[in-house]
Write a structure and sequence with these properties.
single chain; 515 residues; alpha/beta; eight-stranded parallel barrel; five-stranded antiparallel beta sheet; 14 helices; 29% helix; Glyco_hydro_5
């Protein structure tokens, strides 16, 4: 099986003339065209996460954030705020911009409490939100991946799934397993004929940390039960399974549970290299199923460019996390905090930090600020994701197709832990006190001097950087001066060739040159 795609993937809108399905280790649409998915996650909309608001301990989970709004606003005004939040945080204008930016799908994180009552019955108001999103996506030609981000009882035991007691009670209490099975039966019943729905992402990041070992068997059993429940109702939609431990531990994938399925991993804050994908590539080869990077981001444009080219060079579709949040440098859209927001944040620890009347005014301004037309648009994130004229390409972000294909560095040596299978001259710009992992910029901050990487090139050495379309780029060395190299178009992007020894640091768009 060839791990590198043999077809050219073009940006194109979704088509709804059939179901997306697995065909061996590839995905195809209803007409049989091979797909390389490119999407964004609609995090925070149906399952709020505290870090996306700038909140810390005390207001991290949905339950905690809801309790904070009730305390600050009162029951009636808090309910009105959440109605406005569901209306404005993701609106049709967001979906139109996602489609226009070149993406083909959205991943929708769902909190079970939005669509399922405590007795298991469906909440129609919650389903109406999903239905509305599907109609917008139909209009703007995007698929929708339904993602159970917060299962009944919680599947992670952390704040990201809204677990009531900070335990993965989905695997500890039989009634939560029963509610989860009913929820997926209800979803399958409602959407079994809907081709805008890309598939069913059964559980987000189940059983992290110590739970990945103690309850692995229960996770595999639940996956089999959910598969049988869905297939009794819906024979057509793609079923998506995530590994344990933040979707990175794939030890449970020892057999194929359903031929029309997809295996999902997530990747954050780690070296973007083939070695980090080895277990996922091996599972694709062994099981003959397609694989998908369903959540990753929260990093610099340099890391984003490199990581997402890594996935595509291995034929792996992806979904970027997330589309929008407050005061961020790492998402396409950043909500500008309203005046007084810092007092709302302070009120988590100090209830006297803001009065009720002031809080009502701040939250009203927040609803207006979260409209996409009022957000700060950050096109450099989209450009990095799609490889379309990125604002900054790191020298260490050259292609992943190996020596002679993506680079030729005669005297190159590997760097331990960072693309070490590519002996291409990667090194730290400044030796001494260098971190083992220089990729932990979760807020998109600039690299510190000790984190900066360069590629040592001698005369005649070259690197290829993959782009959606070749554009003139300017090459800079470790001192910030123009590097002694030539930059030329290549079959997959651009090729940089050294004309003299240099420590190549980065490439930036060159407005002085046209091709």
């Amino acid at each position: 099986m060839n791990p590198v795609p043999t077809v050219a993937f073009e940006s194109r809108p979704a088509s709804f003339d059939g179901f997306v399905r697995a065909q061996g280790a590839r995905l195809v649409d209803g007409s049989g065209r091979e797909l390389l998915l490119r999407g964004v996650g609609l995090g925070n909309w149906l399952l709020p996460e505290g870090y996306m608001w700038g909140f810390g301990p005390g207001a991290e989970s949905p339950r905690e954030i809801e309790a904070l709004t009730r305390r600050l606003l009162g029951e009636r005004d808090a309910a009105a705020f959440w109605h406005g939040f569901r209306t404005h945080f993701v609106a049709e204008a967001d979906i139109a911009l996602i489609a226009a930016s070149g993406f083909d799908h959205v991943r929708l994180p769902i909190n079970s409490r939005v669509i399922q009552a405590d007795d298991g019955s469906p909440i129609e108001a919650g389903y109406d939100l999903i239905d509305r999103l599907i109609e917008w996506c139909r209009e703007h030609r995007l698929w929708v991946l339904l993602d159970l981000h917060g299962a009944p009882g919680g599947q992670t035991g952390t704040n990201i799934d809204d677990s009531p007691n900070q335990l993965p009670e989905l695997f500890l209490e039989p009634r939560y397993r029963d509610l989860t099975r009913r929820l997926w039966r209800d979803l399958a019943t409602r959407y079994r004929d809907e081709t805008v729905v890309l598939g069913y992402d059964l559980l987000n990041e189940p059983l992290p940390n110590e739970w990945q070992h103690s309850h692995a068997g229960e996770l595999a059993t639940l996956y089999r039960e959910l598969t049988a429940d869905i297939r009794a109702i819906d024979p057509d939609h793609l079923i998506v399974y995530e590994g344990a431990h933040w979707a990175t531990n794939w030890d449970l994938f020892t057999e194929v549970w359903d031929e029309n399925s997809l295996l999902q991993f997530h990747k954050y804050w780690s070296s973007p290299d083939t070695a980090s994908l080895a277990a996922f590539l091996e599972a694709r080869e062994r099981l003959g199923l397609p694989i998908y990077m369903g959540e990753g981001g929260e990093n610099t444009v340099e890391w984003i460019y490199t990581a997402f080219r890594l996935y595509e060079s291995h034929g792996i579709g992806w979904n970027f996390w997330p589309w929008k949040k407050i005061a961020t440098r790492t998402s396409p859209a950043s909500i500008v905090p309203p005046v007084g927001w810092e007092r709302v944040v302070a009120s988590i620890a100090d209830p006297e930090a803001i009065s009720r009347e002031e809080a009502r005014e701040v939250f009203a301004r927040l609803l207006d600020a979260m409209r996409i037309e009022n957000c700060r648009w950050q096109p450099e994130i989209v450009s990095a994701l799609l490889g379309d004229a990125p604002a900054s390409i790191p020298a260490w972000g050259f292609g992943f197709r190996g020596a002679g294909e993506s680079y030729s560095v005669a005297g190159g040596e590997p760097l331990a832990g960072i693309r070490e299978t590519d002996a291409a001259g990667i090194r730290f710009a400044r030796e001494g006190d260098n971190p083992l992992n220089p990729f932990q910029q979760s807020d998109g901050r600039p690299y510190r001097p000790e984190e900066e990487l360069v590629v040592r090139l001698d005369r005649g050495d070259w690197l290829e950087f993959e782009l959606d379309r070749p554009v003139p780029m300017r090459a800079m060395d470790a001192r910030g001066a123009e590097a002694p190299v030539t930059v030329e178009p290549s079959a997959r992007g651009i090729r940089v060739t050294a004309t003299a020894p240099t420590d190549l640091a980065r490439l930036t768009p060159d407005p002085r040159t046209t091709w």
